[in-house]
Write a structure and sequence with these properties.
This protein has about 300 residues and is an alpha/beta fold. It has two domains: about 1-205, Rossmann fold; about 210-295, Helicase, Ruva Protein, domain 3, CATH 1.10.8.80. The chain is about 45% helix and about 15% strand. It has helices spanning about 1-15, 20-30, 45-55, 70-75, 110-115, 115-120, 155-160, 175-180, 185-190, 200-210, 215-230, 240-255, 265-275, 290-295; strands at about 35-40, 60-65, 75-80, 85-90, 100-105, 125, 130-135, 140-145, 165. Strands 2-5-8-1-9 form a five-stranded parallel sheet. Helix 2 crosses helix 12 (about 240-255), helix 10 packs across helix 12 and helix 12 packs across helix 13. It is globular, with a radius of gyration of 20 Å. The mean pLDDT is about 90.
Length: about 300
């Protein structure tokens, strides 16, 4: 299985240049079974990364462009009357795919954004009292423009908490940008990729990750990090129990990707910012690295 992961990472590196750490974090998020939020300015490869992962993982893929006039029914579907059969029929929306890209999610209104809440949490949607299960596995990768840009609607905390991780891509370095300028269109190269994974293998990996060992000392470290966020004046609100589980499970997935059978503190530290960064609110607005106080003040047991 680890050889397959290496193939996925290497293939993604050929599309998204100079961003191996972000690719590994994205893969870690999906292996954990969580949803991914990519926040950055337009044009740095957010959509390309999502499409690349879907192609390499062999998943059914659907892109939804979020706009200010998008309606919940456009996402989850609607019940429409069929005059020939004299009955109402449910027509599935775009969300009924294994991997859904919610592109520029914060350009849609809160009403449209909320259509994803049940799907992301319970892997199902409810329309007029009827519940419809979503395909398995099911992932949402959302891209988001910085909230300072015009025409954006900030995601509420309840929606942000549905995302296991939030990452940024940033600008490419000099060598990567030179290859972008002189090479082929990266998005068109996605069509040349072969699926290296399958839904069945992905589910097997997710089960294997659950068996990665976390020692009592490691759990003490995770709990100490969580407690610090709740007790410290650095933060307005501390991490929730769900955030604590997200941190531990992400660390297990990162350890698995490193070919280890147990979690070490460095695994927790690696995934801390992507998992906790969007769930914390600093008491001081000028805080650039919101998890820095955690790493500085919480000692490894």
């Amino acid at each position: 299985m680890h050889q397959i992961l290496d193939l996925v990472i290497n293939a993604a590196n050929n599309i998204i240049l100079g961003k191996e750490h972000q690719i590994r974090l994205s893969l870690c998020c999906l292996l954990t079974g969580g949803h991914l939020l990519i926040e950055d300015i337009p044009g740095v490869g957010k959509t390309t990364l999502a499409h690349t992962l879907a192609k390499l993982m062999g998943l059914e893929y659907q892109r939804i462009q979020f706009t200010s006039d998008l309606l919940p029914a456009d996402i989850i579907g609607a019940t429409i009357y069929n005059p020939e059969q004299h009955q109402f029929t449910f027509h599935k929306g775009s969300i009924f795919k294994q991997m859904v890209l919610a592109d520029e999610i914060n350009r849609a209104t809160p009403k449209a954004q909320s259509a994803l809440l049940e799907a992301m949490e319970e892997q199902q949607v409810t329309v007029e009292g009827e519940t419809y299960p979503l395909p398995q596995p099911f992932f949402v990768i959302a891209t988001q423009n910085p909230n300072r840009q015009l025409g954006t609607f900030p995601l509420p905390e309840s929606q942000l908490d549905r995302f296991l991780m939030r990452i940024e891509l940033g600008y490419p370095d000099h060598d990567a940008e030179r290859e972008l300028l002189t090479g082929q269109n990266r998005y068109k190269l996605i069509a040349t990729l072969d699926a290296e994974l399958s839904a069945e293998k992905l589910i097997q990996m997710q089960q294997a990750i659950k068996n990665v060992y976390a020692s009592p000392a490691l759990l003490d470290y995770v709990q100490a990090l969580i407690k610090f966020t709740r007790d410290s004046e650095e933060y307005q609100v501390g991490l929730s129990p769900r955030a604590g589980l997200a941190l531990l499970n992400s660390a297990k997935a990162w350890a698995y990707m490193q070919r280890r059978e147990s979690v070490i503190p460095e695994d927790v530290q690696t995934v801390l910012a992507p998992v906790a960064g969007h769930r914390l609110r600093a008491s001081h607005s000028n805080s650039d690295n919101i998890v820095a106080p955690l790493l500085a003040n919480v000692a490894i047991p």
